[in-house]
Amino acid sequence: MAEPVKKKQYKVVRSGSCKASYYWEGQMTASGEAFDPSELTAAHKTLPMGSKVRVTNKNNDRSVIVRINDRGPYAGGRCLDLSKAAMKKVGGTGAGVIPVRYEVLSKD
């Protein structure tokens, strides 16, 4: 009998709300890797590189888990800059800037 596939369990270490935008231009990220708009990544001003964050669009309750690999955003009132793929998962590419809930995750 096959072993059941275990889902990754995360513990929420910090949470909050803010506005999130997205970007898609190819560039080098602050972590040193090339930015790939098709990856589920995001920029945050202070979270450690590699942090996992669950981002939920407050308009439709859709969420995605992203990995922090860049710094930013530098536009006022925003705390996260999502990759285009991450923004698409939460249904925000039409709006450009969306209200989100975020949860910084830690492996249990």
Which architecture does the CATH hierarchy give at level 2? Beta Barrel
State the domain count: 1
CATH C-level label: Mainly Beta
Lateral arrangement of strands in the main beta sheet: 1-5-2-4-3-6
| N→C terminal distance | 27 Å
Walk me through what this model shows.
The protein is mainly beta. The protein has one domain: RlpA-like domain (Barwin-like endoglucanases). It has one helix and six strands; from the N terminus they run βββββαβ. The chain has a six-stranded mixed beta barrel. Strand 3 and strand 4 form a beta hairpin. The two termini are 27 Å apart. The model has no long low-confidence stretch (mean pLDDT 89).
Structure summarized in a few sentences:
With about 110 residues, the chain is mainly beta. It contains one helix and six strands. The chain has a single domain (about 10-80, about 90-105), classed as Beta Barrel (Barwin-like endoglucanases), CATH 2.40.40.10.
List the helices and strands and how they pair.
Elements: E1 10-23, E2 41-43, E3 52-57, E4 63-70, E5 78-83, H1 84-89, E6 98-107
Parallel strand pairs: 1-5, 2-4
Antiparallel strand pairs: 1-6, 2-5, 3-4, 3-6
Quickly list its features.
108 residues; mainly beta; Barwin-like endoglucanases; 6-stranded mixed barrel; 1 helix
